[in-house]
Write a structure and sequence with these properties.
By secondary structure, this protein is an all-alpha fold. The chain folds into 2 domains: 55 residues, Homeodomain-like (Arc Repressor Mutant, subunit A); 131 residues, Orthogonal Bundle (Tetracycline Repressor, domain 2). 76% of the residues lie in helices and 0% in strands. It has 11 helices and no strands. Helix 9 runs antiparallel to helix 10. The radius of gyration is 24 Å and the shape is elongated. 21% of the residues are buried. The N terminus is likely disordered.
Length: 228
């Protein structure tokens, strides 16, 4: 007699379980913030025990780093990074800022939960905000700062504080993307593509148009009006 084959409950492969736990963690943090999310909540959302969660992530900091590891892996295959570098190499200013804006808009649109998580981290002064800045946020900013400084040295951009210039340019894009994809902004009803075009025009006008000629023109106009 042939012994009956034992029926075993199928288990999710370790890599798939790892990704599932990360997505559950991101969703929980994005909904309830870090202060309002416990490890048991993440485990319950993934349909596993806390023991399984801690088997994958020994500490909460391990979990935070794993979330950023996953995002870095996703961004590593983003073709826009190559576009940014190619545009920078040929000094295509509009191309550089357009690609950066597209990268930001696409990231917010594709994974609003992750950006909501970072938003909570910033509001709560959480460790995750500092980790994100060190591992991901500073990389883009450092690249763009070097580009702005280089273009200033070449005479293409006006002399100004490069950090303030980046706060104006990159911060504008992030603010618009956050308002639209996280905070539910309904107005202005404009597509990301149209917003990118207009924002880049504003950025380049601010970085490249000399201030002195405008001031002289305004003085002349005031003089004309005064004598007319």
């Amino acid at each position: 007699m042939i012994a009956p084959t034992a029926i075993r409950k199928s288990r999710m492969p370790a890599d798939d379980r790892h990704r599932q736990l990360l997505r559950s963690a991101i969703d929980c943090f994005a909904r309830n913030g870090f202060g309002g999310t416990k490890t048991k909540d993440i485990a319950a959302a993934a349909g596993v025990s806390e023991a399984i969660l801690f088997r994958h992530f020994a500490t909460k900091e391990d979990l935070y780093h794993a979330i950023l590891d996953m995002k870095e892996d996703q961004e590593a295959v983003n073709s826009l990074k190559r576009v940014i570098e190619e545009c920078a190499a040929r000094r295509d200013d509009a191309g550089v800022f357009s690609a950066v804006a597209r990268e930001i808009f696409e990231s917010f649109e594709e994974d609003p939960a992750f950006h909501r998580l970072i938003f909570y981290a910033l509001l709560e002064g959480h460790l995750m905000a500092n980790l994100f800045h060190k591992r991901m946020g500073s990389r883009r900013r450092d690249f763009m700062r070097r580009y702005v400084v280089q273009r200033q040295a070449e005479g293409a951009f006006r002399a100004c504080d490069p950090d303030l210039a980046l706060t104006f340019s990159i911060g504008t894009v992030v603010h618009f993307a956050m308002a639209k994809h996280i905070l539910g902004l309904k107005r202005p009803a404009i597509s990301d593509q149209a917003a990118t075009k207009q924002i880049v025009e504003f950025i380049l006008a601010g970085l490249t148009e000399p201030a002195a000629p405008r001031l002289r023109t305004n003085k002349k106009e005031r003089g004309i009006h005064a004598t007319s």
